[in-house]
């Protein structure tokens, strides 16, 4: 069943009144593929220092966007957050891997916050590199893990 | 060169004072892959009528998010918009294809608006389907085309 | 006494520190009167299917605005929400009746959220119909019921 | 025709690319009816001085909300504003009459801004008086006049 | 140690999962120095009545901004608020003294909310007086007191 | 005259309909004084690299806040921006000097944007250092220069 559609077919929030307050966490990932020449600029700047401005700007943008999730996703509950952190790494295929982990003590989960944080961090990298090339691909965005709700989830 | 980094290595906006006001358009795409059983629910509801609530909610969320691009992407210029539209279709591989087209008459391009619109529409579909499964993948997000700036772009 | 005015005559929030956390609900209503020819378009489209785009867009806009209440009404407390739902019906006088119900478990009530949700849903209907006529009237907006605070309220 | 619905029945913005930049104005009105005992408090405070805090808070809230119109109404264009002013008076029936006038030099009209400004000013008065009574009615909200678009409008 | 920097040197929120929910308060102050001729206008208008529009507008702007703290300061937690009040006085040196006090029952403190509230109130006074002179100085902004966290603080 | 107060003593925007579109710039400064032990941490981290995370986070927060000026300052016009940049330096008195420069081609000036950008950058530094000490002072915030309006201004 689509939980966000009411009996008349209209969109609606999910009533969480009776749900239990538990500690909940979620981790989401976005992967960005840059053309070689763009990646080279980042490697010579950002990656070596691990605190160059592109990745740091993306980290901040992602955290700030995660806090806005309830404003962006129409039927999400407005939530606080106990924590939100984003790490950005380059994997062996030279892809940029963004992981956003969020946690909260609340009646409802925080996976949309993690997904929004990872997505906006990826789009911020896009924005800061696009003057060099538009051949940039946000290759995938997905939930990696969640805990604390009715069912835990861990991507195989 | 990374245009959003100033000489001291700090993040900065790109000065558009001297740029010309032209009509600019951009189209971006996000592709969402749902597990079969979730897709079936959508097909029996949303897809047949082409105006069921999941896709319409996603369209509205995407348009509203596109208008917030300057607030989400740290170094984007705050812009108006002449138009923004989102279409959602299911392709032959049973993937959900979201296309967001935005246009403006301004000094700077609107590709980030199109990318944010497509991304948040995709995340809204995720949000509305996630009670059935978290095995959902936003398979890719990318720019398809832009016109009106220094260089036009059209993905091959 | 005007609770939002302090002893010096300045606007101020109401201190809820000592209030009890209880479950609180509120329902508000806005009624929109459209000229006949506009209503006819809606009836032939939206109303029959009960999920046409005008009413669904209004439902989503209202829910999203209800979440922004603390940002719009200067002295409202910033609140989460356990639930928010909006129904739109046409009554026997051919008026569009929008009911917004919100609930929360908190120290303070949620009637402003319900009123903002109903009002913005009404204004969204206005916006989507105004190309046909500006002879549209939001005939009334009022609280129908509230529970969970010091005094329950139910409109006679 | 419903201009905000595309050919597939999806909600969409109206493309204003080809529209002319003209000076446009709009005035909207909301009328609030308070129970006698509440009105008395306002008369003895706010109304006599004409700058008491309830009405001034409502004026500010309305202006700030008018600036957020593009964020609240899903298919509104994001716009600047050349001016926005709100007046609040008590008419002979002892009703509170809120008039919001907005103007802009742009491709599209500003009537939704005026309507949002008047509505949120009315809801702010509601919020500041509701501790005394919930028997408050926002009796009507409507456009009074608009100029500068394809068709001027003036309510009879 | 800089608590907002993680081990890799990236900005991050502080994890408050394990912190205790306590009642927390904070008071911050901004001091504005206006040129004599501007101050005179205020004194003859605002100060005597104690509810003139400049100071009241500043009070409202400050309270509304305090509610937006989590949106403005990148690594602040999104928080509710039990109360927020702002007082504005003129001291013996003819300086405008703005005190913002905020309180919450939560896992983390509310001093940034108080500081943002005082700062935006000060900038609002600036905005409303700047047509007369730009020789305006926000002389200082600082925390005066906080209670309820690990360490109380009171400025000597 | 207080330009933001109308004839009835109510707050109002300034009507810019008849003003000319010109290129306008503004630079504002905030100065932050940190206790020695906090400054030492920054010097050993941020200052030497000139791109350490505290200052970069502050730069991004300031730019993003400058874009929100119309939302924070009640009677400011909502504006775009052609450019916004923030530099942070340590002067000979070991004070942190934040300069925010904004520019626009519009009917009204951009000094509030520069002031908001500098202020929020200063408060972000405060937020990231406050775990070490609350003995932090935002020593002053002021306009340094503006061009393009009726009168240019340059602080002596």
TrEMBL record, chains A, B, C, D, E, F:
Domain called Molybdopterin cofactor biosynthesis C (MoaC): residue spans: 13-149
Gene3D superfamilies, A to Z: Molybdopterin cofactor biosynthesis C (MoaC) domain
Keywords assigned: Lyase, Molybdenum cofactor biosynthesis
Pathway terms, separated by semicolons: Cofactor biosynthesis; molybdopterin biosynthesis
CDD domains: MoaC_PE (cd01420)
Keyword Metal-binding annotated: no
Catalytic activity line of the entry: (8S)-3',8-cyclo-7,8-dihydroguanosine 5'-triphosphate = cyclic pyranopterin phosphate + diphosphate
EC number: 4.6.1.17
Superkingdom of source: Bacteria
Lyase is among the record's keywords: yes
UniProt function note: Catalyzes the conversion of (8S)-3',8-cyclo-7,8-dihydroguanosine 5'-triphosphate to cyclic pyranopterin monophosphate (cPMP).
Protein name as catalogued: cyclic pyranopterin monophosphate synthase
Protein source organism: Mucilaginibacter pocheonensis
């Amino acid at each position: 069943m689509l939980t966000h559609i009411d009996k008349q077919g209209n969109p609606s929030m999910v009533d969480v009144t009776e749900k239990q307050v538990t500690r909940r966490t979620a981790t989401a990932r976005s992967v960005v593929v840059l053309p070689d020449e763009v990646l080279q600029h980042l490697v010579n700047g950002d990656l070596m220092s691990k605190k160059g401005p592109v990745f740091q700007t993306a980290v901040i943008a992602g955290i700030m966007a995660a806090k806005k999730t309830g404003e962006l996703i129409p039927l999400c509950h407005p939530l606080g957050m106990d924590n939100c952190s984003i790490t950005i790494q380059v994997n062996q295929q030279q892809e940029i891997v963004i992981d956003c982990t969020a946690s909260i003590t609340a009646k409802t989960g925080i996976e949309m916050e993690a997904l929004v944080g990872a997505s906006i961090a990826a789009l911020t990298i896009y924005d800061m590199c696009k003057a060099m090339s538009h051949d940039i691909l946000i290759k995938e965005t997905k939930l990696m893990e969640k805990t604390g709700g009715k069912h835990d989830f861990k991507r195989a």
